[in-house]
Each structure stands twice: as structure tokens, then as C-alpha cells.
Design goal:
Elements lengths: L7 E4 L7 H5 L8 E7 H4 L8 H11 L1 E10 L4 H9 L3 E5 L3 H13 L6 E5 L6 H9 L3 E7 L5 H6 L2 E5 L4 H21 L1
Parallel strand pairs: 2-3, 2-5, 3-4, 5-6, 6-7
Antiparallel strand pairs: 1-7
Length: 189
């Protein structure tokens, strides 16, 4: 397994657990993605989510045509620079990020060049945005992390991508599974 993709814990709708499996899936050539990232809600140290991983997953699913990361006024300059270096637009908001994200989402929904709306947040406040996107015939991708990833938001998306650190117990179970599979192979020879 490639070490830099270990932060992905699962991906919904038939995709398997790790990035390598996603890249083997057929990329939908006509999927034009508009991506919005709720910076203060997703880009936290405790989640260990890398923008590069989000970008790679979505690029394997389609073509990212719009990529915006919304930040509050307390965002460090280094974060803003890192966002720009990944090819995303950094939008610094002085008021409520949810309101601005709603406005940006509606612009993406009404953009006829976009057929897939991707929202990276854990907040259930965006369930109506996902519903409105579907109402307008758009596919939806919801990206989030535990703890606090809204079940309602997860259930509303066509695709769900759970990101974050792999819990130590899951890592141990995976190592045990690999060890057991290796023993079975040795016994068969």
C-alpha cells in the first residue's frame, strides 16, 4: 500500500477502501466536478486530511473544473499559500462561512458546464445544497471525516468519501489479515 494514501478510511458506492483501488476504476470522462471545501471544518490537524489526496481521488473520478476552499479570517498565510499551490482558489470569509459556501454552491449548481457537485464538509447544514444539486440533475460527492461527519449528509450524497486518520485498531486488524493471508499462501505450496 502506498503510504501517502493511508489517510483515506473509506469511499462509498462500490469503491474499495484505499486509493489504489479507486485508480483502477474507470474514470467517467464526462464528469465535470465543481468542488467546495469547508476549510475550518475539514482542514484540521486532528483529521490529517491532505488537499492533494482529495484532489487525486476526485481526478480519478472526473475532471475538477472548479476548486474552491473557503477559510475564515484567522487562516494562516501558509495555509492560503498551500491551497493556491494545489491549484485551488482560497476564499477568505470574514462572516459566516456556511452562507458564503451556500452562495458558491448555488453558482456551481447553476453552472451548465458542471455536472457533479463535490462538497467537503462534516456539517449537516449542507444537506439542502446536496438536495438542490440533485434536483437540478447534478451528481453529488460528499467528502468528510469522523468524528462528527453528519449521517444525514452522508446519506444524501451519490458518492461518500470518508477521510482522516486510520484508527490504530483498524491498522492492526489489517496487518493481522495480511499476515493470515500470507500464512495461507505458504501452506498451499
Amino acid at each position: 500500500m502506498v503510504e501517502r494514501f493511508r489517510s483515506i478510511t473509506s469511499v462509498g458506492r462500490g469503491f474499495s477502501r484505499y486509493m489504489g483501488s479507486i485508480s483502477r476504476k474507470k474514470r467517467k470522462a464526462d464528469r465535470m466536478i465543481g468542488l467546495l471545501i469547508d476549510g475550518p471544518n475539514i482542514l484540521r490537524k486532528e483529521f490529517d486530511i491532505n488537499l492533494e489526496d482529495i484532489k487525486k481521488i476526485l481526478e480519478d473520478m472526473g475532471d475538477i473544473r472548479i476548486g474552491k476552499v473557503l477559510l475564515n479570517q484567522f487562516a494562516p498565510h501558509g495555509l492560503i499559500e498551500a491551497i493556491a499551490n494545489q491549484g485551488f482558489d482560497a476564499i477568505v470569509v470574514t462572516g459566516d462561512i456556511d452562507v458564503r459556501m451556500g452562495v458558491e454552491a448555488m453558482e456551481i449548481i447553476y453552472n451548465e458546464n458542471i455536472n457533479t457537485v463535490a462538497i467537503a464538509t462534516r456539517d449537516a447544514d449542507f444537506v439542502p445544497i446536496v438536495a438542490k444539486a440533485k434536483e437540478h440533475g447534478k451528481e453529488t460527492i460528499v467528502i468528510g471525516a469522523e468524528p462528527g461527519f453528519s449521517i444525514a449528509l452522508q446519506n444524501s450524497g451519490d458518492f461518500v468519501i470518508k477521510m482522516g486518520k486510520i484508527p490504530p485498531e483498524a491498522e492492526l486488524a489489517e496487518e493481522e489479515e495480511l499476515r493470515i493471508e500470507g500464512e495461507d499462501l505458504e501452506d498451499s505450496y
